[in-house]
């Protein structure tokens, strides 16, 4: 008979732990969702980054921002015109000949894009 109260206490403790664990998991899920929203908002606030010989590498985001506008806003100061431009978006990179801009083709950008001028 001495074991019965001990088993009952252990069962109640296990049920309490299970409820507490569920509460902790729900709290952490809420924290993660809030953190994801903050990261997305910060990416939009950060705009576009231009790597290379420029005075202003951080270009603020505005709706409709294009590659040519970003380079002009970054204030390119290189001796020669860049020969290649690499756009990195969400870990994927695409290289293009800089002459594309001189031909009048412009590329829309998204927040968080990284532009490398070579």
Comma- or semicolon-separated keywords:
2 domains; 5 strands; five-stranded mixed sheet; single chain; alpha+beta; 118 residues; 47% helix; Outer membrane lipoprotein wza fold like
Please characterize this protein's 3D structure.
By secondary structure, the chain is of the alpha+beta class. It folds into 2 domains: 46 residues; 70 residues, Outer membrane lipoprotein wza fold like, CATH 3.10.560. The protein is 47% helix and 19% strand. The chain contains 3 helices and 5 strands; from the N terminus they run αββαββαβ. A 5-stranded mixed beta sheet has the order 2-1-5-3-4. The N and C termini lie far apart (82 Å).
The separation of the N and C termini measures: 82 Å
Query: What sort of overall outline do the alpha carbons produce when their principal axes are compared?
Result: rod-shaped
| H/E series | HEEHEEHE
Number of strands: 5
Largest sheet: 5 strands, mixed
- Average pLDDT: 83
Q: Flag low-confidence runs.
A: none
Query: What is the level-2 CATH architecture name of the largest domain?
Result: Roll
Helix percent reads 40-55%
Structural class: alpha+beta
Strand order, biggest sheet? Answer: 2-1-5-3-4
CATH homologous superfamily of the largest domain, by name?
Outer membrane lipoprotein wza domain like
CATH topology of the largest domain: Outer membrane lipoprotein wza fold like
Number of domains: 2
